[in-house]
Structure formats: C-alpha cells, structure tokens
C-alpha cells in the first residue's frame, strides 16, 4: 500500500502545474466540449447520406423486402435528425451554463438551502447534496420535452411507442425518486470516504465503488426493475425446455428464467442475463418471444451464454476498475488547486478550500476529450467480445457434443435479421460512425463472420472424415 501511495505522490508532483500555472480552464472545457459535439455532428452527417440508399447490402438482400428496408431507412433518418438537433441544443445549454457561471451559483444556492434549516458551510457533505440536487433539476428541465418528443412523436411515428402519457410521467417520477433514494447516500458516502481517508483515498474509494457495483447487481433486478417492468417466470413450453437444457449442459448457474413485459413501453426486443457468479438469471423480452421461433431465441441465448463462458462481464469490470483508478489517481491535483475553481467563477473563499464534489464535477469536464477516446477503445473491445460470443454459439455443437445444435450459427443469423427487421435497425453504417457509437458489430459484419465461422467448422469436420 505504501508503494502505491508513493507512486501516486510522484504523479501528483508531475501535475503540480494545475495549482500554479494560470490556465484558462473554462475556455479549455468550452473548446473540448464543443469539439466533441461538433465531431459527433460530423459523424451524423457522414452517416446521413446512407439513409438515402434504396436497397440493403448484398448479404441482406434476401432478408429484407422493399417495405421493411424503407421503413428502416426512414426510422434511421428521423433518429439522425433528432440526434443532431438535440446534441447541438444540449451542448448550447451546457455551454451557456458554463459561460454564465451557473455552477458557482448552484453551490451558493445549495448553501442557502441548508442554511434555511440551520446548517452552515462547515457541513460540506450536506451542501454538496443540495448542490447535486440543484444541478439535477436544472439539467432535467430541458431534457423532459426532448424525451417526450422522442417517445410520443419519433417512436410513435414508427410504431414502437407503447408508453401512455400517464406511464411516461410515472416513470419519470419513479426514476427521480429512485435516483434520490440511491444517489443521495451514494454521494454522501463517496464524499465521506474522501474526508476520512485524506490523500490516501484512492484504494478505499475504489473498494467502496466496487462494493456499490456488486450491491446494484443484486438490487437492480430484485428491487428497482419491478418498479418499471413485470418479471414473470417463463411459462412452460419449448422455449423454457430448450433454455434450461442449454444452461444445464453448459453448467450455467441458472437460478431464475424470466419473461419481461417490454411491450408495455416499446416494440423493441432483447434478452440478457445478470447476477452473481454462482447465481444467474436470464431475462427474455416478451417481444422477442413473440417475434422469433424458440430455436432462434435459443440461439440468441447461446450467444449471451458465450459472454458468460468467456467471462466478458468480469473482463469489462476489470477494465472499468482500471479506468476508475486512472481518474482517481489524477484527481488530487485538481482537488488542491484553488485556481482551478476560480477559473469557473467560484469565489476566492470557496476556491481556497475546494469542495470535493465541485472539484470532481469540474474535473470530469476536463476529461471530456479523453473520455471520447476511451469510449472508442471500449467499443472496440466490446465488439471483439460480441464476435467471440457469436463464435461460441457456432461452435457450441462441438463443445457439448450435441449434433442437434449443428445449425446454431444459422439460427443466430436468422434471429439477428429478425431483430433488425422488427426493430428497424440501420443496416448501412459508416465505419467511423460505428467505431464511435456502436458497441456491437453491424448486422452485415456479424452475418459475414457467422458464415465464416460456420464454413471453418464445416471444413474442419470434412477433414476429420
């Protein structure tokens, strides 16, 4: 532990310029945030012409009729327009908030809020919670009409919306309530660890955040998810039999098998698993069950179990821990830099002893361009995992010595096509747009890879004969 802290101290020495050099951090954040937004707009403009194509890629020509493909193109075009406008609008609002020093005002408002109840500025954690609430309210106001438009205009236009106005409002209120119930103690504990551990906070804070992630894995499906969707045991039948048999053969620790009423809000389809290493739960959307045959759903689940088999969730968790460690290791230089806060219009009195929550919030803004590059790297890693899970599904026959699963790759391909057709997913995708935005390979890429996996497996089988 002493070695870790000594190395972190050396890093802080390298970053000492943050507290001494007169850097215009506000202009830096403005330039970086606008740079990222304009780059994302550029990617949308690269992608937009592809929605004018009149036929699908050659590998998909036999799977799309003209009507389905045109609907997909229209949906993609409308989503691109919406994303372009909302991205620029949100950036303009964020830029105005930053320019006019509203973050400093939010801290002062938080101080007045707790003063009303008889608490002074020495109660930093309490004022930090009030500061977070003010920022949440300010950021939520413009997002509500945009979310309503997306749900009741854009999604409604293309036949996906199942949400009623009452359900929209109740979901919004539930989300706020759950965010307050969970977020408030999380932030309070987060800040308390800073105060308790001092400059040696990094390992303690990482331990706390890892524990919180594990707790959420347990609480989300059992406590939070039921506020929004109903999870029912998957009814008896071919799909349940296939799923339980597949899980048993792979020694997947299946505890519960659920069907979720995703159709309550949308026509989109999905399936996923969650849980601790020794107790897993599989959730299948009712829309997927309705739109796909049992053997195709089984192929989708074989892909999902491929993620489990290759320990992809654990690997991503490890990557996230490295990411968190890097952020926390860099942060102390900004926490102990009064000039840093003054650059964002905070008074000298506040900047002299920078509040942890304020310094960390502004520090996150500094990382904007870095996070964009990290997002691309994480997408690349995620796509490798997706291909690995697809290959697992193709090779599952050999792993389990189950000849009846010889066509699993073909079934997965059919299921992916069905999902894309029903979800009106985009099939013509610009490579740079995909690299930045997509955690999954495109449908065309996945179908070609599945064919290659199947051909390689068939070739190996012929050699054995």
Helix content: over 70%
Q: Round the Cα radius of gyration to an integer and report it.
A: 25 Å
Question: What kind of sheet is the major sheet?
Answer: 4 strands, mixed
Order of helices and strands: HHHHHHHHEHEEEHHHHHHHHHHHH
CATH topology of the domain at 230-291: Zincin-like
- Percentage of residues in DSSP E strands: under 5%
What is the level 1 CATH name of the domain at 230-291?
A: Alpha Beta
- What distance lies between the first and last C-alpha atoms, to the nearest angstrom? 58 Å
Strand order of the largest sheet: 1-2-4-3
**CATH architecture assignment of the domain at 230-291:** 2-Layer Sandwich
| Low-confidence blocks of residues | none
Shape: globular
State the fourth-level CATH superfamily of the domain at 230-291.
Answer: Metalloproteases ("zincins"), catalytic domain
Subcellular location: Endoplasmic reticulum membrane
Cofactor: Zn(2+)
InterPro entries: CAXX_Prtase_1, Peptidase_M48, Peptidase_M48_N
Organism: Rhizopogon vinicolor AM-OR11-026
What does this structure look like?
It is found in: Endoplasmic reticulum membrane. The protein contains 21 helices and four strands. The chain is mainly α and 465 residues long. It has a domain of 62 residues: 2-Layer Sandwich (Zincin-like), CATH 3.30.2010.10. A four-stranded mixed sheet has the order 1-2-4-3, with helices on both faces. α6 packs antiparallel against α7, α9 packs parallel to α11 and α11 crosses α17. The radius of gyration is 25 Å and the shape is globular.
């Amino acid at each position: 532990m002493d070695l870790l802290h000594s190395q972190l101290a050396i890093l802080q020495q390298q970053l000492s310029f943050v507290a001494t050099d007169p850097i215009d951090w506000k202009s830096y954040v403005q330039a970086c945030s606008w740079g990222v937004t304009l780059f994302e707009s550029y990617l949308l403009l690269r992608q937009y012409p592809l929605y004018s194509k009149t036929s699908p890629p050659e590998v998909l020509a036999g799977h799309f009729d003209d009507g389905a493909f045109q609907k997909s193109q229209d949906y993609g075009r409308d989503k691109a327009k919406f994303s372009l406008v909302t991205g620029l609008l949100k950036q303009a609002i964020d830029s105005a908030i930053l320019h006019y020093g509203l973050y400093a005002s939010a801290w002062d408002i938080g101080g007045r809020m707790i003063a009303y109840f008889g608490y002074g500025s020495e109660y930093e954690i309490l004022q930090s919670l009030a500061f977070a609430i003010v920022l949440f309210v300010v950021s939520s106001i413009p997002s509500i009409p945009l979310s309503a438009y997306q749900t009741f205009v854009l999604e409604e236009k293309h036949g996906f919306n199942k949400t009623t106005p009452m359900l929209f409002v109740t979901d919004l209120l539930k989300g706020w309530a759950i965010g307050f119930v969970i977020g408030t103690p999380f932030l309070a504990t987060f800040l308390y660890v800073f105060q308790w551990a001092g400059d040696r906070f990094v390992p303690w804070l990482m331990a706390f955040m890892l524990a919180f992630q594990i707790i959420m894995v347990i609480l989300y499906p059992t406590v939070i998810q039921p506020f929004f969707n109903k999870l029912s045991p998957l009814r008896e039948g071919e799909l349940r039999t296939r799923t339980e048999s597949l899980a048993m053969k792979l020694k997947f620790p299946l505890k519960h098998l659920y069907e979720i009423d995703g159709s309550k809000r949308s026509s989109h389809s999905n399936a996923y698993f969650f849980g601790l290493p020794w107790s897993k739960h599989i959730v299948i959307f009712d829309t997927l069950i309705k739109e796909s045959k049992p053997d195709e759903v089984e192929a989708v689940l074989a892909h999902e179990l491929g993620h489990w088999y290759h320990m992809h969730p654990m690997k991503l968790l490890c990557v996230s821990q490295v990411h968190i460690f890097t952020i926390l290791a860099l942060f102390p230089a900004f926490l102990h830099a009064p000039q840093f806060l003054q650059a964002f219009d905070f008074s000298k009195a506040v900047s002299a002893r920078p509040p942890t929550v304020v310094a960390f919030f502004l520090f996150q803004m500094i990382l904007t361009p870095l996070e964009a590059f990290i997002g691309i790297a994480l997408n690349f890693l995620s796509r490798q995992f997706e291909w690995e899970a697809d290959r697992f599904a193709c090779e599952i026959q050999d792993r389990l010595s189950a000849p009846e699963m010889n066509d699993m790759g073909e079934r997965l391909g059919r299921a992916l096509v069905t999902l894309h057709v029903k979800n009106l997913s985009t099939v013509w995708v610009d490579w740079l747009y995909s690299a930045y935005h997509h955690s999954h390979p495109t449908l065309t890429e996945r179908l070609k890879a599945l064919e290659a996996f199947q051909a390689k497996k068939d070739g190996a089988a012929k050699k054995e004969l």
